[in-house]
Amino acid sequence: MKGGGFYNKHSGWQQAVQDSMFEHVIKSAQTCALPLPGSGKCWRIMDLGCSQGRNSMAPISAVLKEVRSRAPGLPGTVLHADLPDNDFSTLFHVLAGEGSYTRTFEDVYPAAIGRSYYNRLVPSAELHMLLAFVTLHWLPQAPDWGATAWNQWHPAVTTEALAECRQQAAKDLLGFLEHRAVECVSGAKLILSMVATDSAGDAGSSVPALVDDVLEQLVSEGLVSRSSVSQVSIPIYCRREQDLQAVLDLPQVRADFSVEAVQLNFVRHPVELQYEAGEVSWETVVDAIVGGVIAIWEPSLLAPFRDAEQRQLVKQELPRRLRSAMILRPGEFGFSWHHLFTVLTRL
Amino acid sequence: MKGGGFYNKHSGWQQAVQDSMFEHVIKSAQTCALPLPGSGKCWRIMDLGCSQGRNSMAPISAVLKEVRSRAPGLPGTVLHADLPDNDFSTLFHVLAGEGSYTRTFEDVYPAAIGRSYYNRLVPSAELHMLLAFVTLHWLPQAPDWGATAWNQWHPAVTTEALAECRQQAAKDLLGFLEHRAVECVSGAKLILSMVATDSAGDAGSSVPALVDDVLEQLVSEGLVSRSSVSQVSIPIYCRREQDLQAVLDLPQVRADFSVEAVQLNFVRHPVELQYEAGEVSWETVVDAIVGGVIAIWEPSLLAPFRDAEQRQLVKQELPRRLRSAMILRPGEFGFSWHHLFTVLTRL
């Protein structure tokens, strides 16, 4: 994720996704385990893939409201986790800021963990609820998409590379669930969400193809080398519903969790709906799309360009060229995606 | 603190200070409360003013070793706290790195808190041990040192300003102890340490006066304005032993804590001892002193210079001129300070 608060400003889609999960979030907060009265324990929730925190404030506030109506005055902790290079300073400023749950709820204490959630993060039997919003499509390592492909929808991806990537993503998710099983108390609720594809594996958005075009332009104009572009690799796999279901059906997962819900939605980016309703200009849509691409993918796209000048060139040219390609073709592009989530109960 | 890992590289004195507290750290780990067997609770330690973490690894490893020998296999959490703008990414990389206690001890889980410790940080009765190393001389707000003074040793400080600052520092420490009293279980051990002065209020180091000289040079050469320099104010008060003792003697503090130790040391910077033994050159000492000044004070010294060019000028000139002033006068300058600590037990 891009730092300096940038991600917070360009995550409108991620907010829209939360609406599709909202009733499940509330129901989970109404039914999750609570610490036994007199045990002296706190109620603890973990927020995985927290990024800079803006999108965590509303759901965690909603959850705290439900939990506090069940157990007034129960102290709580909120553990926000993301990778070590996450922008934790922005997170802590958001946590102290106006929209934070810390302003509404007394006796709730946030902390942060800077470690991949593909590792153990907290002591065993510590968590009563766990949110992993719009994050489980990120894999611990970038798959080998083949010589020139850099994502699962790239025309150069082979069937074999894709099959191997699916298998790796299944293993990664299984490992994730094994860690979480140890960390959660019996009766804990987990809401796990990820960007997805439809059952054919199609993305909702044509933007990755447009990024391809721009990278191709930069190569053909001699501005960057083919070999650098070939090294681009984004550590994301957007699962199909059947990919998720296959993991949830594994006997070791069934032994730890009951599956309360699996839901796939095609979630429109709010700015596209506003455009269709004539409320905003096409330019606004283009800005939102380019902002989204840069916020999510810039670090991965820039990674192979280690030379400072080359890096700066790609950093400038990519958004500029994406913008000029889209601006002339109103209504043709979108940054809407399939979204998949599951609700689990720790047995 | 200066970010980007800089503080970690320039905190040799802070490491030397730990030696003066070492036996107390071990004894506290041997006698602190542990969670009751069968309570399902973890052993929890908080590390206040953690900065980028390097200096926390050794003492926390030493503490974990003692606790694990008392209660083998007891899971633990370590909460590292510092201000929101602390360099948490470096902290999390240090926590995952070679010298980290996470490499030596299983089932120990670090997290971070980005909030001033003059606020509540964790739920009540949560902590079994608390370290606040070389940090309690930092106040929540810069005192009003008067029109031109920017620290307690400045020739322009009035007796009244200094008295007011002492009073404010006492109030701040009392507030700090009140928060910690709620957070600690009965039997928790707290080791609280700070840069100090001798009973006359003298600093150990002549470096602040040299910084004065450089700032004065910059004004007289017309490079920066007098009014900007007058706005410099460092939020530090280095207490005398009697300042600390007066707070510890307050009835509300005595009701919460017993005082196990109060100790004042003059701690020499290791590089100065190496120089005196003929092991390093004077240039090495100068580099260490300038590095220390910049690591600790640069953010406060630069704060009034909001204009980018002015800021850059001071950022360059201050270390350069400090270095040239010192390099010609071998053995005349040092970055050694008085250090004061107390060991408390929560009643």
Automatic annotation (TrEMBL), chains A, B:
InterPro entries: MeTrfase_7 (IPR005299), MeTrfase_capping (IPR042086), SAM-dependent_MTases_sf (IPR029063). The lineage of its organism: Eukaryota, Sar, Alveolata, Dinophyceae, Suessiales. This is Uncharacterized protein. It comes from Polarella glacialis. Pfam families: Methyltransf_7 (PF03492). GO terms for molecular function: metal ion binding; methyltransferase activity. The keyword Metal-binding applies. The keyword Ion transport does not apply. Keywords: Magnesium, Metal-binding. It comes from the Eukaryota.
